[in-house]
Amino acid sequence: MSKDVYGVFDAHEFFGEFFHNQDDYASRFSAKIKYSPETGLILEYSIVDSDVPSACEILFGILNNGKRCTLFGPFNFNLGGRRFGVINTKYGSHGFPCLVMGDFVSPDKKFDHSRFTFHHMQEFFYPQGHLDGVAYKDGTLETIKGTDWIIEIENRATFNDVTETLMNLIINENGKALKRLSSSYEKIKTAFPDNSFLLRKSLEYLFKYIPCTPKTIKEMYLDILKITSLFSIFMDRPTFPDEVKIFPNAEASNSISLLSSINLESRTVGLAKSNPSHFLMPINRNKIDLSKTISTWFELHDSYRVLSTTFQYETNHRTLHSAYSDVILFSTNIESIAHDLGMPTSDKYEGPINRYGSDELKSAIRNIFIIHNNNSLGKNLSDLRNELAHVGRPKKLIKILNISDYVDVAEILKLVVVSHLLEQIGVARDVIYGYQKRLLPKAQS
Among residues 368, 345, 370, 364, which one has the least CA distance to residue 416? Predict the structure, then answer.
């Protein structure tokens, strides 16, 4: 991957000239592209040339950094403002979903593979404060095979040439040892005069995603999003593709960079940019079989899309309305799990909780209700869901529970749903219990 990095959690700004047909540079206009994770990609334009169409699906551009680019729309410049006078001008700001840096690309062009990182990927794989203990390995570290795709995990590193300065970087209190090392190093340099000695500055992990048949940029990016959404669940934080490079050929030449609008709330951006610890992540690289989990996740993704988006777009802020909604959503998910497992209707809540919940989790959710009544957990959850979802039901629990109770109930039910998913993709039961323990609401755990 090249040195040009366009991360989705950084701000970017480019100025350039844009046109709707790569073979017709005459009809062009000046504009600025602005990007932030909150606002997405915005084109600030001023159009004087009357030959520029009012609407188009795609724009090509030459940026002030000398790069070609492609903007995927659609664009409708009639929605902006107009200035009338000696020269009529269209102006305004127009949002768009996707920017390709490095070439003019048609939407239907197929690509061979992509390389990408996601936010906190490096910490997920290895604690960044201990990287000196990891050796750099060239080539593929691990291969993950799906039904119609392959993922290869690779290292990426940056280096400094220390061929002539290495001994300046080494300190030892024993002068004789240091002198012998210096002498030996000079002999090695003499013996291998055409070789350089490099000191590693950084070490990163990245994914190489290879579909069995070439895919368009949109198809490629949707697959990458599926992968990163799983890691959002693993790490319990908003996670999106960060640096994305797409390659037209197997030789990995002439790559393009992809920057997509994610349009997040500022609270979500703050969570995504916080610095998690490898050791405190609910699930990190050491706890799972990546090949099994990712392969199975591709098969299950569509069934758990809503669940994964709750992690990707988390804000850590709840209103009474959102707390009510979460209880209804996750209690419905629990019912669906019970149905899939063949459990009787009378056990549609307690059944999944008893199957997947640790002792701490089961105790935590029971304690929310036990101070208010002696009803079973199943009855309390059924009553609470019905009071929230149906008009005309007596509001007994709603009157005695507070917003913290609703939030805690929803969070615990979500943990049961996630635990069901984790078991399906091959995560061990002790890891699932550790996940629950890490994320149980603090007031109840």
Answer: 364
| Cα–Cα distance, 257 to 245 (Å, whole number) | 5
Question: E strands along 77-197, which residues?
Answer: 81-83, 89-96, 98-101, 113-118, 140-145, 149-161
| Residue 253 confidence (pLDDT) | 81
Task: Measure the CA–CA gap between 120 and 239, rounded to whole angstroms.
Answer: 8
Structure confidence at residue 445 (pLDDT): 38
157 vs 50: which has the higher pLDDT: 157
Distance, CA of 426 to CA of 434 (rounded, Å): 15
Task: Scan for tokens 């992509």, then name that residue.
Answer: 114
Selection from 356, 368, 354, 363 nearest residue 404 by Cα:
368
Residues 195, 196, 200, 206, CA torsion sign: negative
Label the pairing between strands 55-63 and 40-47.
unpaired
Tell me what pLDDT residue 81 has.
Answer: 83
pLDDT for res 385: 92
- The pLDDT tens digits for 60-115 are 999 998 999 999 999 998 888 887 776 778 889 999 999 999 999 999 999 999 99
Q: Around Cβ 61, how many Cβ atoms within 10 Å? A: 24
Given pLDDT bands bounded at 50, 70 and 90, which one contains residue 444? very low
**DSSP per-residue letters across 132-146:** GGS----SEEEEEE-
Predicted pLDDT of residue 296: 96
**Distance between CA atoms of 255 and 115, rounded to whole angstroms?**
10
CA nearest to 441, candidates 367, 388, 384, 377? 367
Q: Are 12 and 24 in contact (CB under 8 A)?
A: no
Backbone angles phi and psi of 82, in degrees to 5: -140, 140
Question: Sign of dihedral through CA atoms 119, 123, 125, 129?
Answer: positive
Q: Are 33 and 67 in contact (CB under 8 A)?
A: no
If 0-12 CB within 10 Å is exposed, 13-18 middle and 19+ buried, where does residue 194 land?
exposed
Q: What is the rounded distance in angstroms from the CA atom of residue 108 to the CA atom of residue 404?
A: 49
* pLDDT, position 1: 46
